[in-house]
Amino acid sequence: MTFQKACVVSVSVVALIASAAPSFAQTDLNALYEAAKGEGQLTVIALPHDWCGYGAVIDGFKAKYPGITVNELNPDAGSADEIEAIKANKDNKGEGAPDVIDVGLPFGPSAKADGLIQPYKVSTWDSIPADAKDADGYWYGDYYGVMAFLVNSDLVAKAPTSWAELTGADYANQVALAGDPRASAQAIQSVYAAGLANGAKTAEDAANLGLKFFGDVQSKGNFVPVIGKAASLAQGTTPIVIAWDYNALAWRDGFAGNPKAEVIVPSDAVLAGVYVQAISAFAPHPNAAKLWMEYLYSDEGQLGWLKGYCHPIRFNDLAQNGKVPQELLAALPPAEAYAKAVFPTVDDQNAAKAIITKDWDSVVGANVQ
After folding, report:
1. Which CATH number goes with the domain that contains 309?
2. What is the pLDDT of residues 280-311, one digit of tens each?
3. Considering the domain boundaries, does residue 253 fall inside one?
4. Do the beta carbons of residue 299 and residue 293 sit within 8 Å?
5. Same domain, yes or no, for 23 and 129?
6. Is the dihedral of CA 111, 112, 113, 116 positive or negative?
7. Is residue 159 part of a domain?
8. Which of helix, strand or coil describes residue 175?
9. Interval 113-128 mean pLDDT
């Protein structure tokens, strides 16, 4: 099985299949660019340069559209922080107000319901799978990945290959999440995945069983209440970090062998997660925000994410049209790792998120910072 085929199979699990969508006028990119240049700036938030290849993606946008400064707010923020930044800056047209957000899937519908985002359909709208976007254009999937373990092989003698192994005595003071599960979509999904590995059949079960599992990891002395990052793994503070595969792979490459590290997709549960883009309803630079979206959903922008190990939401469309370079496919993990990926629905994620964010302190009792 080729990786290309595996991606098609995994996308079908969540029914990410493009369907007929209403046609609309092609965006005049030149006019949009001129309007964006008039605004002079784009403010983004929560985009670490080693997340999904964003460093190169931002550089690509600036090179393609000179005259627009990219103001980068709080690269280490979580999805909930992004939403709060919009709320806190409704009347602020200054440096602290984000124009655009990149958040976990459940945050898209809730932000729409709360009137925090505005609709915009990019030129490539029709090639975004119907089940990965809001029909009215308020939010749209951008990329997806699966939950994985990044392991410092210099410090961990035997890398864990399953969630179940993380409670073992071999991993004392070694296991960390790449975020605070009370705010970070990545960390919330990690707990969800652990619940699936422990036999969950519903989202509520996944949340409760995942919390119980991490409570066990904590009680065994294996959990480290530090937000796991590339630096903390390299330094040995968090020798095992649970993160999206694209983050783990990028961090591994960044080490250049020092330390030695490996990325493992756990055998007992493979959870896939879609992130979404949206424009703030109060964006100080709305034209720059729209131009940013046009870039992200262009072939160039989508392949930029793929270079950062993220599966862009238009992957199937690009692959079917022969636009994915073979070297990019070859750099991705084996297809078999993705074959049994599970894509929770928005409702499932919302149900699990409510339980995990509320009960983490009482069940696990680890203040992740």
Report:
1. 3.40.190.10
2. 999 999 999 999 999 999 999 999 999 999 98
3. yes
4. no
5. yes
6. positive
7. yes
8. strand
9. 97
Q: Is residue 344 within 8 Å of residue 203, measured between CB atoms?
A: yes
Report d(CA 206, CA 343) in Å as an integer.
Answer: 13
Q: Would you state the structure tokens that stand for residue 333, as one six-digit string?
A: 């993990």
Q: How far apart are CA 2 and CA 255, in angstroms?
A: 28
pLDDT band of residue 345 (cuts 50, 70, 90) is confident
Average of pLDDT values for 71-79?
94
The dihedrals phi and psi of 95, each to the nearest 5 degrees, come to -65, -25
Partnered with residue 42 across adjacent β-strands are: 70
Instruction: State the Cα–Cα distance between residues 128 and 132, nearest whole angstrom.
Output: 7
The answer to whether residue 368 sits within a structural domain is no
The predicted structure's pLDDT at residue 8 = 30
103/37 same-domain check: yes
Q: Are residues 213 and 295 in the same domain?
A: no
pLDDT interval class at 330 (50, 70, 90):
confident
Whole-number pLDDT of residue 266: 94
Tokens 């030695």 correspond to 260
Is position 37 within any domain?
yes
Pair (174, 162) in one structural domain: yes
The answer to whether residues 253 and 198 belong to one domain is yes
- CA-CA distance, 248 to 251, in Å (whole number)? 5
The residue that leads in pLDDT, 176 or 19, is: 176
Domain count, the chain: 2
18 DSSP assignment: -
pLDDT for 331 equals: 81
Element of type H or E holding 241? strand 240-244
Predicted confidence at residue 320, as pLDDT, reads 87
Question: Quick one: 233 and 327 in the same domain?
Answer: no
Domain limits at 115? Answer: 3-143+274-336
Q: Which is nearest to 308 in space by CA: 143, 179, 176?
A: 143
What is the per-residue DSSP string for 55-102? Answer: HHHHHHHHHHSTT-EEEEE-TT--HHHHHHHHHHTTT--STT--SEEE
